[in-house]
Write a structure and sequence with these properties.
By secondary structure, this protein is α+β, with helices and mostly antiparallel strands. It contains 19 helices and 32 strands. Bound molecules: zinc ion (ZN).
Length: 626
């Protein structure tokens, strides 16, 4: 059912359609945003009561003056680091003024800008549209950038908006937004800046749990959970204790926080993408339906909540100067994502271990998996780590074939190894007196309570590192960031007293990853990864299997004359160790069947860390702070 008010507005609008003439075609110079308050408050009403039909109905009003106005739909989305605003999901976009329809015209160069000629006597534009939403019958993770336009020409931090929401009947919700009032399913939030609105998603659902993660503390932190089933949104006492330890350990690490209150918004579902998106005072966290009920799933995704939480400090509060933008229209520059994401990934591993979500051994197994994966990056010959950050707005992160050659978003995993390298170097140079913990406190632990972004440059990172431990950090980082060649340029594993080796038995972590990802990793033996249907998902560039024709996208139908299964292939690889006969594959490529022979006799290979030279610094880093 549509909102009755909206239907009336639409009827009036249609009756008076074409009362005003359409704006001329434009590819205009768009206005530079100014750091001045936008006059008047916007209002926004998002009606989620029709979400079961995959529709959100939206009404918005924007105060304007007569003349030319430009409305933007948010394009560059913080945390995504890319021009990914889902404008193609907006339909039925109607603009009215004083009840009369006003034509709009899209800018010819900037597709996210809409020109409107505001007639004399109109001081407010009324927008109505539908957001064509994905199907999620039991919950909605609502991001406001999907359902709100804003006027061009002002910093979004200087535009004030009053959001209201109609929930599906009986559903509960959580958000970092502060509730002004609630009457049944209608919720009014306190006015916020447009910037903070986009930074404050609402999670609403049928099955709902809210857990206090900072009991007795003046600054509240909550874990809110919704998802597919009632059982899937319940956390155990042990899980809760570990998430509480995460809050304690993060605050001990950074020494200050950057939120009034913090809300994890966790969806446990098999019907939404699995990802996390950071915000100052909340995070949009989406994981498997069995994340809380299956210990393996829980361990496999153990760093997700820590990662998004750490972003409140690294990424939201401290933000690369060229990534920060005054509105969502200006391009973001992603060259410092190896700090923004790489160091966040590093601290996520550390805090996951310090809080007990992982054991130290699990963290080491994770580092072994990452180090092996990054060591096998054939694409390092042509593409530096720095370029993986620079080029991310254009990358299709969904494509995985030839991942080792493309490199994708390597600033996450290799960034993690980079910061382990820095941390162990500081500890080594200072004889154990100093560590990256001091950098964390100095860089992120200022301005307690503030969530106004504080920007930084590469030089600021270097200056803070030098204040912790003098060294030529610029050269140290640049040589690793800009390296092209065939070896892993980071040495934090060795610096931490461990080394990467391969044997025939997977670590428990690798076994779990195999189960969760439904993909078997033969990358370090045959040079392929294969999903549970036999599809080759990745193949090492110029590897023995790729040369034989086992490339991403083909399906392995049989191995040595037997139907494909992961176990059949593992057995064949093991058996080939003691023969000189190649392994024979029957492979399907679209509708073409071929036999391929791979002359490999090296056995199965899985990565592990074993103790190397020097002190166990990885063990020391994983120790909880007192
Ligand atoms: Zn991140």
């Amino acid at each position: 059912m549509r909102h009755p008010l909206r239907r009336a507005t639409l009827a009036a609008a249609v009756a008076s359609a074409m009362a005003f003439s359409a704006p001329q075609a434009r590819a205009a110079d768009l206005p530079v945003a100014v750091d001045q308050p936008y006059p008047g408050n916007l209002t926004l009403h998002v009606d989620l009561s029709d979400a079961s039909r995959h529709l959100y109905h939206v009404r918005e009003s924007i105060p304007v003056k007569a003349g030319h106005a430009i409305l933007y739909y948010p394009k560059w989305i913080p945390g995504v680091h890319a021009p990914s605003g889902p404008l193609s999901n907006v339909a039925g976009f109607i603009v009215t003024g004083n009840g009369k329809r006003i034509p709009w015209r899209r800018d010819l160069k900037e597709m996210y800008a809409f020109h409107v000629d505001v007639p004399e006597g109109v001081d407010k534009l009324d927008l109505s549209f539908d957001y064509l939403a994905p199907a999620t019958p039991d919950y909605i993770p609502l991001s406001f950038n999907e359902v709100a336009f804003y006027p061009a020409g002002h910093y979004t931090s200087r535009i004030t908006i009053e959001p209201t929401l109609k929930l599906p009947t009986g559903w509960k919700f959580a958000s970092a937004l502060e509730t002004a009032s609630q009457s049944g399913d209608e919720v009014s939030f306190r006015p916020v800046s447009f910037e903070n609105l986009v930074d404050s998603p609402v999670m609403t659902g049928k099955h709902f749990t809210r857990i206090d993660l900072a009991p007795g503390q003046s600054t509240q932190v909550h874990l809110n959970i919704t998802g597919d089933t009632a059982a899937g949104v319940k956390a155990t006492e042990e899980q809760i204790a570990k998430q509480r330890a995460l809050v304690v350990q993060a605050n001990k690490l950074f020494g200050a926080h950057h939120y009034d209150h913090y809300d994890f918004l966790l969806v446990t579902s098999d019907h939404t993408g699995h990802f996390g998106l950071e915000h100052h005072q909340s995070s949009d966290d989406r994981l498997f339906a069995n994340f809380l009920t299956d210990p393996d799933a829980n361990a496999a995704a153990g760093t997700l909540l820590p990662h998004e939480y750490i972003h409140s400090w690294n990424g939201k509060f401290r933000r690369p100067a060229d990534l920060w933008t005054p509105s969502f229209a200006e391009p973001m520059q992603d060259d410092l994502l190896w700090v923004y994401e790489g160091m966040t990934d590093y601290w996520a591993g550390v805090l996951t271990a310090r809080s007990g979500i992982w054991t130290t051994a699990q963290w080491r197994d994770s580092l072994a998996a990452i180090a092996a994966d990054m060591s096998a990056r054939t694409g390092r010959e042509w593409r530096s780590l720095q370029d993986t950050a620079d080029g991310i707005p254009l990358s299709s992160r969904g494509s995985t074939g030839w991942a080792n050659l493309r490199r994708g978003a390597d600033y996450y995993p290799e960034g993690q190894l980079l910061w382990l390298d820095v941390d162990t170097k500081i500890r080594d140079l200072s004889g154990g007196k100093h560590s990256l913990d001091e950098f964390a406190r100095a860089f992120f632990g200022t301005d307690n309570g503030s969530y106004v972004p504080k920007t930084y440059t590469f030089d600021d990172v270097i200056a803070t590192l030098n204040a912790v431990q003098p060294y030529d950090w610029a050269t140290f980082l640049r040589t690793r960031l800009e390296y092209t060649g065939d070896t892993l340029p980071e040495h934090g594993i060795e610096g931490g007293g461990w080394k990467l080796v391969y044997d025939e038995t997977p670590t428990p972590f690798a076994k779990t990853a195999e189960k969760i990802r439904k993909t078997v990793n033969f990358a370090y033996s045959l040079g392929i990864q294969v999903d549970d249907k036999g599809v080759v998902t990745d193949s090492q560039w110029e590897g023995i299997a790729a040369k034989a024709g086992l490339v991403p996208g083909v399906t392995i139908v049989a191995v040595n004359g037997k139907d494909y299964s992961a176990q059949v292939l593992k057995d064949a690889v093991t058996a080939a160790k003691s023969t000189t006969t190649p392994i024979e594959f029957l492979v399907k490529n679209i509708d073409d069947y071929q036999t391929m022979k791979v002359d490999y006799h090296g056995g199965l290979k899985y990565p592990h860390l074993v103790r190397g030279e020097g002190k166990d610094l990885i063990g020391a880093i994983a120790m909880p702070k007192k």
